[in-house]
């Protein structure tokens, strides 16, 4: 996972307001500016051509110094207008910023693509293209932060609020080229004698980012907590969405915030509940020191909420956010899970690898075995839910189900009528949405549940680590109009081609404790690892590979 500090968007400021045709670079006459614009467009005096050209350093310097080619003798001579601001609307300050960016980029070895910048000089209305710098920073280390040990509360009779480690997390990891990741451990000040989560790091190879994949699992069988949990180790982020958990009686859910960086992070947790979004007192200004993990009980954030969804935003430094969910029914533990972040809200989300373990109409059911939780955070939306049966012959299992979403209020959709099997859900909405599915294997002693989050699209080769656990499966899902061939290569180097049908999904068995390389088709795929037995239900989406990280784009204001 690439250090998120190298995957950011930056802005270059400029004075507010709009230029008028009379604006000019300080010390440059309008005719000289027009000639300079012509030089930028490859010698053409056409304003349209100038807007589409790339500014050369020589042309910019000539315009700044007033040494651009002279206008024709027939052109009237006009005095240069005085800028409205001491620095000029497009004066030396703005050109200086551009030169500083170029010098800094060159000194850092950053590849910078300069797109149309005719707006640096006076131009007629409608002839101002934006400055846009696409910079590919030097390759940094790939960093993956894990969820850490399973935690338990109430085991200290003298202080029931004290947290303790209930079970360690067993890790599976691997990096491209066989590089061995370096492992460090974060401090866990909120956990008594806590071991803390692992952070895995691999350096770049030959100047390029090294792909890294890691996942962890844990099993607990105790009188106060039982079940199986599995989750992927992922990069820290400035924004995360957790679609999971409950603030009702019997739930003992914990929000876990990990900061693998060198700078303290200030975190805000917005809770979306039955009355809309709110930032509770316990979710405001949470300081997560560098190299530490913080734990916040969900009950302190969303007490009484049946279907909370959390938006976790960080300032100063990114954090890796997750949620540990556990449930007790009349003193009988009913499962647990460690849930990572779901995909950020978008108009289409895909949730692959959803297992249905409980048959419809199971005797003694008092709860919903399988359900979909959805949220449109910013605006009312109409959403269409399509359910695909993996390995089936006809794609969708039923007609799309349409649901109406109110802005900022989570909705739970009952899916308990599905037959036993593995499914993929595709949600298409009129406004950005996010979501996840909860699946349970039962409601008595020895049962378990898991949360299955919306997956990001994998568009370039990526590694996936399969955490240790019973009968793991890999689901590949596509929203493309054409079938795709996806390559799956194991640690032994043997490649298997998997055909994913158009708008469908496929589930294949994989080996626990192994690392695979996924090579998607031309249109990209979503993928997830799933575990589904009577006493172990869990899964996690496959994150996009580190090598696919995009360049930094720099915009002016």
Helix content: under 10%
C-alpha Rg (nearest Å): 27 Å
Q: Ranges with pLDDT <50 over ≥5 residues?
A: 4-128
Provide the β-strand percentage band: 35-45%
Using brief descriptors, characterize the structure shown:
single chain; 557 residues; 5 helices
How would you describe this protein?
By secondary structure, the protein is mostly beta strands. Helix content is 8%, strand content 40%. The protein contains five helices and 36 strands. The strands form nine sheets. Strands 21, 22, 23, 24, 25, 26 and 27 form a seven-stranded antiparallel sheet that branches. Strands 12, 14, 15, 16 and 18 form a five-stranded antiparallel sheet that branches. A hairpin with a 2-residue loop joins strand 34 (526-533) and strand 35 (536-541). Helix 1 runs antiparallel to helix 3 (57-65). The protein is globular.
Give the helices and strands, then pairings.
Layout: E1 10-12, H1 30-40, H2 47-52, H3 57-65, H4 92-108, E2 111-114, E3 133-136, E4 142-145, E5 150-153, E6 163-167, E7 170-175, E8 182-185, E9 198-202, E10 212-221, E11 226-232, E12 239-243, E13 254-259, E14 265-273, E15 276-278, E16 286-288, E17 292-297, H5 299-302, E18 309-315, E19 320-329, E20 332-339, E21 346-356, E22 370-375, E23 381-389, E24 401-405, E25 411-414, E26 421-440, E27 449-453, E28 462-465, E29 473-477, E30 484-489, E31 495-500, E32 505-509, E33 515-519, E34 526-533, E35 536-541, E36 552-556
Parallel strand pairs: 1-36
Antiparallel strand pairs: 2-3, 3-36, 4-9, 5-6, 7-10, 8-9, 10-11, 12-18, 13-17, 13-19, 14-15, 14-16, 14-18, 19-20, 21-26, 22-25, 22-26, 23-24, 23-26, 26-27, 28-33, 29-32, 29-34, 30-31, 30-33, 34-35
